[in-house]
TrEMBL record, chain A:
Taxonomic path: Eukaryota, Viridiplantae, Streptophyta, Embryophyta, Tracheophyta
SMART domains: RAB, RAN, RAS, RHO
Pfam families: Ras (PF00071)
Protein name: Ras-related protein RABB1c
Membrane topology note: Lipid-anchor
InterPro entries hit by this protein: P-loop_NTPase, Rab_GTPases_membrane_traffic, Small_GTP-bd, Small_GTPase
Organism per entry: Acorus calamus
TrEMBL record, chain B:
GO molecular function: GTPase activator activity
Organism lineage string: Eukaryota, Viridiplantae, Streptophyta, Embryophyta, Tracheophyta
Protein's job: Acts as a GTPase activating protein for RAB7A. Does not act on RAB4, RAB5 or RAB6.
Protein known as: TBC1 domain family member 15
Primary localization class, coarse: cytoplasm
Amino acid sequence: MSYAYLFKYIIIGDTGVGKSCLLLQFTDKRFQPVHDLTIGVEFGARMITIDNKPIKLQIWDTAGQESFRSITRSYYRGAAGALLVYDITRRETFNHLASWLEDARQHANANMTIMLIGNKCDLAHRRAVSTEEGEQFAKEHGLIFMEASAKTAQNVEEAFISTAATIYKKIQDGVFDVSNESYGIKVGYGGIPGPSGGRDGTVSQGGGCCS
Amino acid sequence: MTWIPYKRSWDGIDSTGHNVNAGLLEKDRNLYTIRAVPLTDVHSIHRHAPPLGWQYVIVVLSSGLAHPPLYFYNGGVREFLATIKQHVSLLRSRDDANVFLVNDLQDPLQKSLSSLELPRAVPGSNGTALHSSISSSFSNETPGRLNDATVDGKSTTTEYNGKQKQKFNDPARDISIQVLEKFSLVTKFARETTSQLFRESHHDSSNSYERMQWMNSGSINMASIEPTIKQKVPDENPATLDSLQVDKLSLVWGKARQSPLNYVEWATFLDSEGRVKDSEALRKRIFYGGVENNLRKEVWRILLGYHAYDSTYAEREYLASVKKSEYDVIKSQWQSISPSQAKRFTKFRERRGLIEKDVVRTDRSFTYYDGDDNQNVTLLHDILLTYSFYNFDLGYCQGMSDLLSPILFVMENESEAFWSFVALMERLGPNFNRDQNGMHSQLFALSKLVELLDSPLHNYLKQADCLNYFFCFRWILIQFKREFEYEQVMYLWEVFWTHYLSEHFHLYVCVAILKRYSRKIIGEQMDFDTLLKFINELSGHIDLDGIIRDAEALCVCAGENGEACIPPGTPPSLPIEAESMYLPQDDDL
């Protein structure tokens, strides 16, 4: 299928926060709790539409365990977007965000759009990180923030799409040199950037779902 | 055309230095006989005139079938070709001065060798008068020559094999890479043909002549290249360089796979008290065919090194009971941790949490581990947590559950699975080390092997900045666990665990797979991302037996030069210094 742009995404965060489940929910619209743990990296892809333009998201779902960081770092290269995920029911996954962010800043290109996702917001009764803390962290580090649930699909679409919308806007604003693929963007048919009529409403900026 | 080998017995010494006393069996004689093949059916004749050793030709039929090498122990290849030429048109391939195309004006071989699609049939351009048999001129004449084996040639070969391998210099190495390249071009084509030819004979493992042929074809090439290059012998004879280039069709790639070892055969490997009589023979047998599932429990414990090859039934039984108690003691260490103690034991809580999360994400689609409240999942958990106490410095790391899962499935016993896993981790533990040194040393060795065995791919990966080989990370970390079906994984692992041709056979498997897709990778100019995705998506689409055979051939071809690519102590070799094996892990995420 042809696309105007292809964006490379990377999903990072501690092991067990639901990275693979978020991806599966986004690409296949299903929740599969007994998914084999990720070794190395897995891939997913889906087409979306922004500003009436078909955009292909190629998503890299990485292994979360600390030991694999040296390998995982090589996957950042050329990513246009990152979903940094923590589990709202496990405090330590939130505490580790800074170290993930440091890795991302160090190994990805500076213009990478990062979306912070507090996953498992369906488990509000076991919540260990408040929505405000998530928002605060995102604000401090210049990230987009959403709480989401891979299980109920709440905000999953929104998270992936609003990240894409942000990247798309950066292209329109001339932040990226799209001919340079190190920005994680490939131009497909019809995607040569030019003056645009602005973004349309296919993008819904979701808010925190569990606040 | 008819060929009947004359020589009936071998009394020399083969290139590996072993006495070869086995007479030429009737079977071998049949194998090397060509009976009344019409010349219209012959596609090409490949001449091989190595500087050392005997000249020989290989006859390739247009059906794709290649006959085994026909040796001329005292010259005569030229006369042979001249005689053929009296009957059919014989064209030298433009690509290769030592390939003579029979009845072929289009030179499809040249085309096909580069496109890898060897034609199944060659148009018979002037097929009418070609049925004339030249059997009179050769089947009767050559035996006299065959009879006088040149012992000199043999001993020279032996000498070079034994002494000169270490002194490999770069030009020679380049040639050897070319050699292997040529080999790869014909692999696909020749696999089918030789597997047919060798199927019968390989079933007989005592067939030492066959084995010798096979060993020779790998080692003579490598050995005979070196002196030529080193002495800078000018290329007087066009045949010299070609012979350096590889005995294309004579290079027999991995042997046909055998059926798995079963109980009846297993019993023949044991003495009355249960000791393995000949561990080498057993390892070889398993290397070529694996083990039947109901026998794995017993055999794996030995292959893994939990039980010694020379242990008796009684000793193994005794060890099992001792180890059961030992396991219970280690397990009780974490079982006795109270909730209030756990509250003050972050490391323990973290590891337990990781393991709890991972065992429910391990092979749950496999019947043995599926469903809610599956006791086997609990066993995975208990064994891994016990292991993290047994080897506290290493602890738990993702991927371990993938390695344990088939072991527990086979052992069906907690303590036995634990100790078998311990034995495996003695070798693979460094894969999971925090600094990833075990993985990096294997990936490095892999890059050196590819450089040796597939230089175009190496050059491409270098240019594409992919030499870190991270795209093979999963293959190596969990020994192809995610690349094949469960049953195939068990089979592949027992092949690895024999350490029969190499302790690092898994790296040759990596090379074999990469080599299969080498042209695609280079042709499509895959960048790191594309390559990683491509390799990931090969999962479930790899022809396991074919790859094992390729890997076997590569391993034999590479020989000592291959082993020299692998630094000492590279897993799964046992670590050089057991003391400093693991860096304690600070924290696990």
